[in-house]
Amino acid sequence: MCIESGVLGINAIRRNFGTSDLLFKIAAAHSASIFSCGQLVSSERDCYEMPSKHIFGYYGSWATYRSGKGRCAAEDIDPYSCTHLIYAFAKPTSSGDVQLVDYNLSFAGFNGLRNRNPSLKTLIGIGGATVGGYIFSSIAGNASLRSTFAKNARQFCQTYGFNGVDIDWEFPEGGDRYNFVQMLSELSSELGGYDLLLTASVGPSEYRASQSYDIPGIARCVDYILLMAYDYNGSWDSYTGHNAPLYSGSSDSEFQKQLNIDHSVRYWKRQGAPSHKLILGLATFGRTFTLSNSSNNGFRNNASGAGHAGPYTNESGILAYYEIQERFGETRWDSEQCVPYAVSGNQWVGFDNTRSIQRKCEYIKSQGLGGAMVWSIDMDERRGGSFTLLNTIKQCL
Length: 397
What we know:
The protein is built from 13 helices and 19 strands. With 397 residues, it is α/β, with parallel strands linked by helices.
């Protein structure tokens, strides 16, 4: 187990010893605010039913700068839609500091969502795909910097009002595999003493995990492991493939048969990750391709590059769910991989809809996983103030 220093906080206890006794004590201490039916009293919602699984929702703060339907401010998020919200991102520095990415944005609206739902937990995501792996590598490989970084992460949470930290290092390489656990251990000790949560967002595939992660070591240090179970295929390939297939397809090669959710989850469990700590990432975006021949428009057909950028996200090779709904008409269903895809001329997209999200939520329950993570709330479709895919997850879990 990770060694805890100072006061052994509630979250540190949960990491190492489980939750059943702790939850009983908390429930007893707060029995006055809990109905016998197991529902919480809320000033905003008189009787809010707690989900049986955790739902982590990532919020991309840059969405506040998008125009029209693409714009999403923190205040637009339903505070009852998730059990945990993660703000993307703050960034680490080579000196072990934690810095704001955008000094024009405020955390007040995001963390203020807890005023409407006191049961909600908010975390700061540190890292992300645009942060150079060398920065995390330099911190993780130096004992002094690990200590400095852990203290600065804890102070960041206390300064801005977060309930914990999610580490998104994409991705550890070589010797980083061991050092990553050392860094998480330091964070676990520092954050746990202040009842702050620690999670890690990780690459899910066997290929990635076998190179980057000491899975039992990570599991000992964090409250939850967030499997980023998407980006299995994309425009970096020369052929079409789904963003997040639940299972493999018959046209997959032996290597490609590893690139799906079921293979990833079973691998992480075999390698020692407790099921209840695994949180399955679900995508509110699709990966797009430009077909080489629009007549050959199934899976593993030739593609000449990324699909066209969307009007709101403005990035080739990717579309938000609401952009897919605008751009594509008829949806096709692949019964082998249990996911939808769509074609419009020479444009091809593999994405998730309510049907595939329901299938994945049932999979979460069948595998005994801890819950779901959404990347990202701001890319979901909004109808009448409700987020379509996120609401599906909430109803299913």
